[in-house]
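Quick log. Single chain, no ligands specified.
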Amino acid sequence: MEQIYKIAIIGLGYVGFPLAKLFSAKYPVIGFDIDRNRIDELLHTEDTNSLPINDRMTKDNKRLDLSIKNGCYLTSNLEDIRHCNIYIITVPTPVDEYNKPDLSPLLRASESVGTVIKNGDIVIYESTVYPGATEEDCIPMVEKTSGLQLNQDFYAGYSPERVNPGDSQYTIEKIKKVTSGSTPQVAKIIDDLYSSVILAGTYMASSIKVAEASKVIENTQRDVNIAFINEVKKVLDILNIDTTEVLSAASTKWNFMNLKPGLVGGHCISVDPYYLVQRALQAGYKPELTLTARKVNNSMGYYVADQVIKEMESVGCLLKQSKVLILGFSFKANSSDIRNTKVIDIYTTLTDSNISVEIYDPLVDRSKVRSQYNVELITRHQLLLKTYDVIILAVKHRFFEEINLRSYLNKKGFVYSLQNNELMSSNDLEASHE
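-> predicted structure:
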C-alpha cells in the first residue's frame, strides 16, 4: 500500500480544520467543505502572512495562492481531492427534533468520497456515531457509489475525534487518540499515521466497533455524572443548603468526582448519548439511566430561569417592569461555539414571563446567533449604557471576571451565578469590591 500520503479532510468545522492544520505540518493536505462560505471564512479569519512563504505560493512560486491556509489547500470543489489517498471524514452527526440520530451529513460525505476513491485508498471516519455505523451505514454508501469493495479495493478506519474547542491546554495533538482499521494491517497503518502527529500518542482498538463505542460512552459517562450533580443541586436548593459548600466537603475524599452543576449543551455531551440510546433500543434494551440523565440535563436552563423568577418575586420585582442581563451565550466557557447552547432555554423562559432580557457575549458571532436562534445580542457599547435588576452569569468566560458587575446592577438587584451556585445582592457585590 502506498506510503506517500496525500490527505483529504472532509468537513472543516471545529474538528476538521484543526485536524487539517495538524496533518499539514507533515503531509500534503486538502481541506474540503461543501460550504463555500466556510472556506471563505477560514481563509479570511487568520493572518495569511503568518504562513511559511513556500506554503503561501503556487507551484510557479510567483503569486500568492489565497486558497492555502496553514499549509493546507482549502476547497469546495470535490474534484480537488480526487488525487488523495487518505480521506478523513469529520462532518457533524446531529440529532433531529425528536433526538434521533441524523446520519445524513455522514452519508452524503460517504457518497462524495465514493465518487473519488480509488484502489488502495483509505477512508477514515472521525464523526461520533453509534457502534456499527461505519461498517453498516457509511461504508456501504462508499461501495455503492464507487463500485469498489471494502478490504478488497479500498480500506476503512475509525478514529473518534477528541477536540475540545476553546481549550488552550489540551489542544488536538495533546489528546491521546483512539484508532482502528478494517483489517489488522490497515489498523497499523492508520495508527502509525496518527502517531506521527499526535504527541500524546495513540491507542489502537481491536475493531472499528470498539473504537466507535469508546467514543460514544466517553460523553455519555460525563452526561450521567453531571446529571447527578444537577439533580443534587435541585435537592439542596429545596433544603436551602449551599451546593458549593457541600461539593467542597465531599471532594475531600480522594475518589470523589468533583463536578459542578451547570448547563449541558454543545454537540458532544448533549448529543452523543442519543446515539447510544438509538443503538440500545434497536438491540431491544431501553437505557433508563442514560435517558434520565438527558432529561435532567435538558431541564437545567428552565430550572435556572425559574429560580431567578422566584428570587425576583421574593425581593419584590415586578416581572413586566424588570430588566435582566444574561452574560454568555456559547455552550461552554471561553468558547465561541453556540451549538445546542442551553442559554437559549433561560432566555425563552424569562421572556415568556414578559421579562425584558438582553444577552451579552463578546466571544460569539452575533450574526450566527441571530440567524440560528433569532436573538439579537447587545454590543459592548450598549452594555455600557444600561443597568439591570438581575444579572445571570450563565457562561463563565474569563472576560467576565474583569467586569465590575455592581456597576451594571440596580440598587436592589442581584446576580445569579450558575457555575458558583451563588446568588449575590448588589450589597454583596459592593462589599466584595471594597
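The first helix runs from residue 16 to 24.
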